[in-house]
C-alpha cells in the first residue's frame, strides 16, 4: 500500500495505517510504501501521525481510506510549509508602527518578536500596506503619509530592521500609497505593484525587485479612484484593482519581461456600489470583490464572484451577502475556503469554494466573531491565511490586536486559537494590513 507525495521538503514525516503499518519517507520523496501487507477485503485508513520539521510543514492525505481489493497505489499526500511570521501595519499608532510575530506551527499561537511593535523611522508616516518579498528576506511597507515604500530586512526569528534601503518615493508629495501586491513569476525579476490615491489621479506603479531594492519600471498607470486593493493572477498574467470611490474594478495585463501594465480594453468591470477588496483564485479563472454597499455603516454588504478567460475580461457570476462593511478577503492556498472581514459588525464571513465553478457556499456557523468585542465591534480590517492553510489571522483595527483561528480542513469552520487575540500596537490605533511569511 502506498502512493505519491508532493511538496515534502522537511524531515520526519510519518504515515500510519490501521494495524500499525508505517512509512517514513526521506525528504524530497515523491512516493511512499507502507510497511506490511493487507488482506483482500480489509478496510484501511492512512493518516499523518508526525508532521515534518525543518522547515515545519503541514501534510494532508487524500484517498487514504477504503477497502483492499488489490495493491493500493493511489493514496496522495500533499505538504505545505507552515507560516513562520505574521506582520501587521498600524497606520495611526502615533506616526505608525509595524508589528512582527512568530507562528507556533502546531497551535497557531502568535508570539511578538523582540522589539515589536517597531515605531516607524522618522520621516516614514502611516504604514498602510504590506507585502513580503518572494525571497522572504524583506518586507515592503507602503507609507500613505509620506508617499513612499520602505524596505525592512527580515532576520531569523522574524526580527525586523526598518529602512535597510532608503525609502522609495511613489509619485508626488500628495501621493498616498495604500495597497501592495507582488508578482513572483516575472521572467527577469519579481515585481511589486503599488496602488496610490493621488489627487486628482489615482495610480498603480510598477517596481522591479532586486535584493530588496525597488526600481520603478515605466510610468505610473492611471486607475480608478482609491485603489485600496490589488490582486495579481500570476498564472495568467493579470492584475485587478478594486477602486472604492469610482466605483469600479479595473483589469490589466502584465508584460512578462518587464512587469509593465496595460489596461484591458474592456475595463472597468462591474456595477458595484463600493468595491473595497479584490482577491484572485490561486490558479486563476476567478476574482472575488467585496462590495461595502451604499450604506456600509448599517447595511449588509456582499462578496462578488467574477470569472475570466485568457483575455482577462471579467464576467459576473454571483453575489453572496456578508456582514456590515466588508473590507478584507483571504483565500487559503489550496483554494478551498474564502473569508471576508466585516468591519462594522465585528465578524468574519466564511465560504467554501467550488474548484470547478468558483461558486461560493456559506460555511455552517458563518459569520464568526472576529474577537472578544465588549461594547463596540473589533472592526476587522484585513485577514490572511498562513501558507499551510491551517490558520486564519485577522487584524482588528478597533481593538488594536490580531485574532487567530484554526481552520477546519474539511468544513472551513473557524475556531479561536488559545490566547487569541494578540496585542499588536504601541498603545495607539490598530492595524490596517496584515501579511504572512
Summarize the entry for a quick read.
By secondary structure, this protein is an all-beta fold.
Features:
single chain, five-stranded antiparallel beta sheet, 437 residues, mainly beta, Methylamine Dehydrogenase, Chain H, 2 domains
CATH topology of the largest domain: Methylamine Dehydrogenase, Chain H
Total strands: 40
Number of separate helices: 0
Q: How many angstroms separate the termini? A: 36 Å
Low-confidence stretches: none
Give the helix proportion (percent range): under 10%
Describe the model.
By secondary structure, the chain is mainly beta. The protein folds into two domains: 2-80; 83-436, 7 Propeller (Methylamine Dehydrogenase, Chain H), CATH 2.130.10.10. The chain contains no helices and 40 strands. The strands form nine sheets. Strands 9, 10, 11, 12 and 40 form a five-stranded antiparallel beta sheet that branches. Strands 17, 18, 19, 20 and 21 form a five-stranded antiparallel beta sheet that branches. Strands 30, 31, 32, 33 and 34 form a five-stranded antiparallel beta sheet that branches. The chain starts with a strand and ends with a strand.
Amino acid at each position: 500500500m502506498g502512493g505519491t507525495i508532493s511538496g515534502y521538503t522537511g524531515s520526519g514525516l510519518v504515515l500510519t495505517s490501521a494495524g500499525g503499518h508505517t512509512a517514513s519517507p526521506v525528504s524530497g520523496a515523491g512516493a511512499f510504501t507502507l510497511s506490511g501487507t493487507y488482506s483482500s477485503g480489509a478496510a484501511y485508513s492512512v493518516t499523518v501521525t508526525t508532521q515534518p520539521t525543518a522547515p515545519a510543514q503541514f501534510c494532508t492525505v487524500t484517498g487514504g481510506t477504503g477497502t483492499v481489493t488489490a495493491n493500493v497505489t493511489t493514496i496522495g499526500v500533499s505538504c505545505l510549509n507552515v507560516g513562520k511570521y505574521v506582520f501587521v501595519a498600524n497606520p495611526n499608532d502615533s506616526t505608525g508602527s509595524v508589528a512582527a510575530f512568530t507562528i507556533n506551527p502546531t497551535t497557531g499561537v502568535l508570539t511578538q518578536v523582540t522589539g515589536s511593535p517597531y515605531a516607524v523611522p522618522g520621516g516614514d508616516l502611516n504604514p498602510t500596506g504590506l507585502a513580503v518579498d518572494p525571497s522572504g528576506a524583506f518586507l515592503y511597507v507602503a507609507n500613505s503619509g509620506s508617499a513612499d515604500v520602505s524596505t525592512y530586512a527580515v532576520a531569523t526569528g522574524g526580527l525586523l530592521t526598518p529602512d535597510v534601503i532608503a525609502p522609495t518615493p511613489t509619485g508626488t508629495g500628495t501621493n498616498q500609497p495604500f495597497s501592495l501586491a507582488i508578482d513572483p513569476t516575472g521572467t527577469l525579476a519579481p515585481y511589486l505593484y503599488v496602488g496610490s490615491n493621488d489627487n486628482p489621479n489615482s495610480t498603480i506603479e510598477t517596481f522591479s525587485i532586486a535584493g530588496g531594492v525597488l526600481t520603478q519600471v515605466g510610468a505610473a498607470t492611471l486607475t480608478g479612484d482609491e485603489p485600496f486593493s490589488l490582486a495579481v493572477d500570476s498564472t495568467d498574467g493579470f492584475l485587478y484593482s478594486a477602486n472604492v470611490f469610482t466605483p469600479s474594478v479595473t483589469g490589466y495585463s502584465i508584460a512578462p519581461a518587464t512587469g509593465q501594465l496595460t489596461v484591458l480594453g474592456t475595463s472597468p468591470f462591474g456595477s458595484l456600489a463600493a468595491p473595497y477588496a479584490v482577491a484572485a483564485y490561486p490558479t486563476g479563472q476567478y476574482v472575488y470583490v467585496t462590495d461595502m454597499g451604499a450604506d456600509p455603516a448599517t447595511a449588509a454588504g456582499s462578496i462578488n464572484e467574477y470569472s475570466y478567460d485568457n483575455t482577462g475580461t471579467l464576467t459576473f457570476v454571483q453575489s453572496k451577502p456578508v456582514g456590515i462593511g466588508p473590507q478584507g478577503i483571504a483565500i487559503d492556498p489550496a483554494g478551498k475556503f474564502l473569508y471576508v472581514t466585516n468591519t462594522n459588525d465585528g465578524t468574519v464571513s466564511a465560504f467554501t469554494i467550488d474548484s470547478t465553478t468558483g461558486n461560493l457556499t456559506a460555511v455552517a456557523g458563518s459569520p464568526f466573531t472576529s474577537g472578544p468585542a465588549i461594547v463596540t465591534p473589533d472592526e476587522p480590517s484585513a485577514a490572511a491565511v498562513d501558507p499551510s492553510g491551517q490558520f486564519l489571522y485577522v487584524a482588528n483595527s478597533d481593538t488594536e490586536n490580531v485574532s487567530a483561528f484554526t481552520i477546519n480542513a474539511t468544513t472551513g469552520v473557524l475556531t479561536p486559537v488559545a490566547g487569541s487575540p494578540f496585542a499588536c500596537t504601541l498603545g495607539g490605533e490598530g492595524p490596517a494590513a496584515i501579511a504572512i511569511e
